[in-house]
Structure formats: C-alpha cells, structure tokens
Write a structure and sequence with these properties.
This protein is an alpha/beta fold. The chain has helices at about 1-10, 15-45, 50-100, 105-110, 110-135, 140-155, 155-160, 160-205, 205-210, 215-240, 240-265, 270-315, 375-380, 405-410, 425-430, 440-450, 455-460, 475-490, 505-520, 555-560, 565-575, 575-584, and strands spanning about 335-340, 355-360, 365-370, 390-395, 400, 415, 425, 465, 495-500, 525-530, 540-545, 550-555. The protein starts with a helix and ends with a helix.
C-alpha cells in the first residue's frame, strides 16, 4: 500500500478543502449517531412514561439532526468532487509532462498503449478512489469508533460482543487486501495489452484493410479481450465472498445482542430503548463494515493504478541535462563524431555504430548512404542527442553535446525526420511549429523553399487549411514538404534531412535540392537518402556498412575507390550513362 500512502501525500495542496470535508464528515457522523440516542430517549422517557412533551421534543431534535446530516452529505460530495478531479488533473498534467521529458530510449521500452492506459484508465481509477475515500472510507472508521463508544456507554456488557466480532472482521479485511492487489495488477496489465492492440489498429487501419487482415486483427483483439474478461471475472469472483462474510459476522452480532439483551431486559438491567439503540449502533457498524468491504477491492485496484502511474512519474529520461550543463553558444556549427560507438540497448547488445569518426565543417553537406540497417538514421539521432553514445563523443564547435543543455543544442538544429509527423491544426500552424512567432511572409518563404507553396495555395483555404489527424488529407510527398518547410523556418545552423524526399517525385526533389542549395550557405547539412541521385552533389558522401564507415569521399572519388558505392550507383542509375554525364 505504499503507492496509496504516496497518493495521499500528494493531496497536500488540497488540505484546506480536505479539512473542511473532515469537519463536515464529523458533523454528519455526530448527527447520525445522535439519532439512536434520541430514539432511546423517546421510547424510555416518552412512550414508556406517556410523556407527550418528551416525544415531541425528541422528534423535533431528530428532524434537525436529519437536516444537518443531509446538508453535511451535500457538502462532502461537492468537496470530494473538487479534490478528486483536481488531483486527477494534476496527475494528468504531471504524466504528460513526464512523457514529453522522456528520451527516445525510454519510448523504446514503453509502449504507447501502456502510457495511454496510465493517462486514462489508471488516472480515472485514482480520481474515483479519492472521491470514494472522502465520501465513504473516512466515514466508516468514524462511524465504527463512534458506535463502539456509544455501545459501551449504553451497556458495557453487550459491548463485549464486539471483542469477538471486530478481530474476526479485521482478519478478513487483511486477507482480502493482500490477495486482491496482485489480481488487480494482472487486470491492468491485460488492459495495457488491449489498448496496445487497439492503438496499433487505429494507426495502421489502412494497412489492415490493404492486406485483408481484418479477420486476423479481430481474432487478435478478441484473444486479448477475453483474457481481460477472464481476469476481471476472477477478481469479481474472489471479492464476491467478502460482503456475505461481513454480513454473516454482523448478523451473528445482532443475534447475540438480541439474545443477551433479552436476558438482561428480563432481569430489569436493560430497557427496551437501550436494546433498540444498541441494535441501531450495530446496524451502523454493519453498514460501515459493508462500505469498507466494498472499498477493499477498490483500494487494491487503486493501489495497482497508483503504482503504475508512479512508475511512469519515477522513470528518468535516459538523456537529460547535466547539473553543470551550459547553454551552447552561437558558433560555426562544426559537428564531429569522435570514435563513436552506439547501441540501442546499452553495452549488452551488438552496437549499431562502431568506432565512427567523422567531422563536418560549416557550410558542408554530408550525405549518408548505405543499406537498410547500416546505421544512417542512428547516426543522425546522435547529433541532436536523442540518444547518448556508449563510447567516444559527439561534439559541436568543440563542445561535447553532453556538456550543453538540450534546449540550446536542439534549438540550433533543424530536423526533417524519416517519418513525417504533423499535428492537428492548420498548415500555417504546422509550418511555424518550431517558431510560433514567425510572420506570414516567413512561413510562405519557407514553404516556397520546400516546394510546398503551390499545392498549399491550391487548397480553398490555403495556409488556413485544417490538417486531418496525422495529415490524413495530405499525400506522403506533401507531408514531407511541410516537414521540410517547418525545419527551414527555424533557420537552423545545422539541418538534418533523414530520407526527407523519399515520397516526392524526382522532379520535385530536384527543385527542393536547388532551393536548399541557397539555404545551405554557412550551414552544416547531414543528408540521409535512399536515392543515390539525392547525394551526388554532396561535398562528401559517407558509405555505411554494418555500422562502420566503409568509404568516404565525393561522388567521383567513391566511383573510383568504393565497390559498394559503385554497386549502389549502378543498381539505381545504370552502368555508365548517368555516371559519365556527371563526371564530365
């Protein structure tokens, strides 16, 4: 229950509201517990003695107590909603901020479906727990303690019955609390898997339909769905016995009260009003124990959810600023990889980059070429420090990128990723995503440079066209050109193009390259490409093979010295025609 205790500590910002709720709860419990005492007075001093004044007075007092109880209940409900929803909003905010702080390495381990479950289902469970705790869980102990005290004051001999009833009840609670929490963890784990499958199918629905795999995906979802159902039924079956056990124990107490109370009444040491009051307190205890029984499973489920939420909040970004990190000063944008070795899973896995040494001078364009899996995108991801190297270092203007702040480093780097990501909103908003303050003229200039202006103006709303979810109403080439425009608008010192023209035709690619030639002046550009036509004009071409630099030079040098480069060139552009033309 450590997670629950930590959750309760996180409610400190709302201690004033909670204190007001406790005050209302005390009034509620006091009013409810006073009613049996007034009922005893009505019977013993009013009805038994035929005193109408006592009866009327007692009835009026009980009506007042009922009004107080109702008002306190409304107040507690309003305060409970306020605190529970405020805490849930805080949790969502903190979770979202923590997720955004994660590095790429964290996302390699955490699945989208898991994070969605924590932000939605787990968070809703926490909100419900706080609401129920303030309304029900706090009331139950107060009602039990208050009823026990009044039982002793009413008749201490009858109160001895609780010495046997309470320990048995506590043992039942402890047993169920220890057994239920692991079961709820299993349920939430299955919910993770369900959300993961659902999220994958939403993202890849076009692929599912294109490959006629709807039946397969239905079966896969149904398997996970059935597992979730079975786990939930198992939990429900386990908890189904709890309430009958509690009712059985309390009913035993009621029988004992009637039997022993009857004997004492016949001896003249106990009045009818006292028996009725005592039974009323026992019924209050039964209601409180029933509520606690309902809360056992609820607390176990909430503890599991809190544990999963705090697990994400406690996760530390693999890449973060050092305590003594400095802001990267403006310089010439000279990038260098010095004997770099990198693996996605640390030193335990085979490195994807091995002993890479490469320097890029200001104004130079470095092209990365190689087969799929050769390490091109991995190298690109090291430059803005999306990952940290295991060996060697990445430096910008002589400074190790681990010694400067991430914000200052990435603010000077423009990235066009391999997988284009657009956000809901207008085309204008997406282009100036990295520079929200950019003017319309700057947005249009960046779009022109990316060869996007013409197709944008073809839309009826132009730059105010609303982009559908993940850019569904745009072609792949259009999305790539918007991503290029977004990067150019930042006016970065370093530009990283990770296969950013793979979805445009050759003619458009040529126009983009021509526009980038003017932009590249004084900037360092790293270009990853599958088409060899995209890299012919680069100052230097790096040929990667199985994570190592297999060859380095310009087009003419590599045609003469690198069999791998010649093989790629000839497979794409033919034996000699393109090469001879370029070499002339």
């Amino acid at each position: 229950m450590r997670s629950i205790l930590r959750l309760l500590r996180s409610m400190k910002p709302y201690r004033k509201l909670i204190g007001l709720s406790w005050l209302s709860m005390a009034c509620l419990v006091a009013a409810d517990l006073a009613i049996p005492r007034m009922l005893q007075t009505t019977i013993d001093q009013g009805i038994a003695r035929r005193d109408t004044g006592v009866i009327v007075q007692s009835v009026l007092i009980m009506i007042g107590l009922i009004v107080i109880s109702a008002a306190a209940t409304v107040g507690i409900t309003v305060l409970s909603v306020r605190v529970s929803q405020s805490l849930a909003a805080d949790m969502r905010r903190d979770l979202f901020a923590r997720v955004l702080s994660f590095s790429f390495g964290n996302f390699d381990r955490l699945q989208t479906g898991q994070l969605m479950t924590r932000l939605s289902s787990d968070n809703a469970q926490i909100a419900q727990f706080v609401f129920m705790t303030m309304r029900m869980f706090l009331r139950a102990p107060l009602m039990i303690v208050g009823s026990l005290i009044l039982m002793v004051l009413t008749n201490w001999q009858l109160a001895l019955i609780m010495l046997f009833l309470m320990p048995a009840t506590i043992l039942v609670f402890v047993f169920y609390a220890n057994k239920a929490q692991p079961l709820f963890m299993q349920v939430q784990g299955q919910l993770d898997r369900l959300n993961t499958v659902f999220q994958e199918n939403l993202s890849g629905v076009r692929v599912v339909k294109a490959f006629v795999r709807a039946r397969h995906e239905n079966e896969r979802f149904d398997t996970v769905n059935v597992h979730l159902m079975e786990r939930s039924i198992r939990v429900g079956r386990f908890l189904a016995i709890l309430l009958p056990i509690l009712r059985y124990l309390v009913n035993l107490g009621i029988i004992a009260v009637i039997a022993l109370g009857g004997i004492l009444a016949m001896r003249g040491t106990l009045s009818v009003g006292q028996i009725i009051a005592f039974n009323s307190y026992l019924l209050w205890i039964m209601m409180a124990l029933t509520n606690l029984g309902m809360m056992v499973g609820f607390i176990s489920a909430s503890d599991a959810s809190a544990q999963r939420i705090f697990g994400v909040l406690d996760e530390r970004p693999e890449v973060s600023d050092r305590p003594d990190a400095m802001a990267l000063p403006s310089g010439e944008a000279r990038l260098a990889l010095e004997d770099v070795t990198f693996s996605y899973d640390g030193e335990d896995q085979e490195p994807v980059l091995k002993e890479i040494t490469l320097a890029a001078e200001p104004g130079e364009t470095i092209a990365l070429l190689g087969a799929t899996g050769s390490g091109k995108s991995s190298l690109i991801n090291l430059l803005p420090r999306f990952y940290d190297v295991q060996g060697g270092r990445v430096a910008m203007d002589g400074l190790d990128v681990r010694e400067v702040t991430l914000d200052s480093l990435r603010a000077q780097i423009g990235l066009v990723p391999q997988e284009t990501v657009l956000f809901s909103g207008t085309i204008r908003d997406n282009i100036r995503y990295g520079r929200p303050e950019a003017s319309d003229e700057e947005v249009i200039a960046a779009a022109r440079a990316a060869q996007a202006h013409d197709f944008i103006t073809d839309f009826p709303d132009g730059y105010d066209t609303v982009i559908g979810q993940r850019g569904v109403n745009l072609s792949g080439g259009q999305k790539q050109r918007l991503a290029i425009a977004r990067a150019l608008l930042m006016n970065p010192r370093v530009l990283l193009l990770d296969d950013s023209t793979s979805s445009v035709d050759v003619e458009t690619e040529a126009r983009i390259r021509a526009a980038l030639d003017q932009f590249r002046a004084g900037r360092t550009v790293f270009l990853v490409a599958q088409r060899i036509s995209s890299v012919l004009d680069a100052d230097r071409i790096v040929v990667l093979d199985r994570g190592r630099i297999a060859a380095l030079g310009n087009h003419l040098e590599l045609m003469a010295s690198s069999p791998i480069y010649r093989e790629i060139y000839q497979s794409q552009l033919g034996n000699a025609v393109g090469g001879e033309h370029h070499e002339q």
